[in-house]
């Protein structure tokens, strides 16, 4: 399709049908394994780092101290005694 044509759902459907006809049912997924092999290690490291930092940051604060300071701040903010 050239830049002058407008895109539509019908055109997308025709393109998918043509691709499957020319390359077979697995044609649309060709190259997917290479992409997964490239992205999976990055995603695994990113997830592990996120979980590790979440554990480090949340275990350094005591939940009791956090709740106490939040309650103290809230009680002194705008409510009359």
Strand content: under 5%
Helix content: over 70%
Radius of gyration: 27 Å
Mean pLDDT: 78
Structural class assignment? mainly alpha
Largest sheet: none
End-to-end gap:
72 Å
H/E element string?
Answer: HHH
Q: How many beta-strand elements?
A: 0
Assembly type of the chains comes to single chain
* Number of H- or I-type helical stretches: 3
Tell the overall outline.
Answer: elongated
Poorly predicted regions are 73-77
Integer tally of domains? 2
List keywords for this structure.
81 residues; 0% strand; elongated
If you had to describe this structure to a student in words, what would you say it looks like?
The protein is mostly helical. It has two domains: 1-30, no CATH class; 31-81. The chain has three helices and no strands. The protein has helices at residues 9-23, 32-60, 63-75.
In short:
The protein has about 80 residues and is mainly alpha-helical. Helix content is about 70%, strand content about 0%.
Blueprint of the fold:
Layout: H1 9-23, H2 32-60, H3 63-75
């Amino acid at each position: 399709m050239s830049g002058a044509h407008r895109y539509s759902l019908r055109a997308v459907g025709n393109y998918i049908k043509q691709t499957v006809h020319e390359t077979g049912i697995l044609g649309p997924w060709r190259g997917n394994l290479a992409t997964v092999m490239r992205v999976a290690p990055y995603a695994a490291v990113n997830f592990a780092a996120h979980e590790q930092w979440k554990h480090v940051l949340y275990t350094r604060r005591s939940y009791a101290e956090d709740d106490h300071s939040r309650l103290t701040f809230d009680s002194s903010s705008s409510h009359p005694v």
